[in-house]
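Re: the request from the purification team.
They wanted to know what the chain is likely to look like in 3D before they choose a buffer screen. I agreed to run a prediction and write the result into the notebook, where they can find it.
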Amino acid sequence: MIGLVTDSNAQLPPELAERYGVEVVPLTVTVDGTPYLEGVDLDAAGFYARFERRRPTVTTAQPSPGQFAAAYEAVADRGATEILSIHIGSSVSGTVNSARLASQVSPVPVRIVDTGTASFAVSLCVWEAAEAVVTGATLEEAAAAAERVGATVGNVFVVGVLDLARAGGRLGDVASAATTIPILTLSGGVMQEVGRCDDLDHAAAAMAQFVCGRGSSLRVGVGIADPSTLPLVAAVENRLRGASEVAELVRYVVGPSVGAHTGPGTVGVMFAPTGTRGGGVPFVGS
């Protein structure tokens, strides 16, 4: 039996965590000097509420090896004989290193995947690996499925606070504008503008077109930050739900470890094609 573990930066929706029995290890998010475990001590609503009066000072830190050791033991106690641990890329976080240290004391073998990506893109890697496990994949085959998605995942988004993205050093040549909405994608570690829209309907259309123009049989996650983004989120979902290119669509919450770099008002769409294993048929969600 293969158990699955990821970290909270994946923004894994509860429905997928429950569907595949995924154990989620929380990152630490420190807000104005107070540390919180993401999704445990601090959820998205509590985090974005901090922005209502002023912009807080936020930092993030990887889980400790002890947290991972406890997670691996819990998964083994549920019957797993080996574990696939899939995480935010080592280029942006020390999470993978903590997982590797903990794997040395795990009661069962642990295979760690450095996805080379972040946020819901990690969940897409978990999703593909979990489906591979369901259809009988070995540990190495499931790990390869996750790694494949990590290399091919796509994204498009609007950022609520451009200055936060700029301060993080990932915003390219994107000008702030009060009357238009910049549509962005993260490529090569830099946020690049792929369009600019006058209103939410045009932004939703542009984001959906960007997704559907990049493949078929796609798994897609639409990310919502705070309630102010709900109209755009709903408009994007409505356009994607009926698209022939989309195999399955879920909504995820842009939590503190991601929102620390983008702020409230952010909407993201991440997507990846479903894979095949051993000549099988691509998975099509319900």
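For the purification team: The domain at 154-273 is CATH 3.30.1180.10 (Hypothetical Protein Tm841; Chain: A;domain 3).
Please add any questions underneath this entry.
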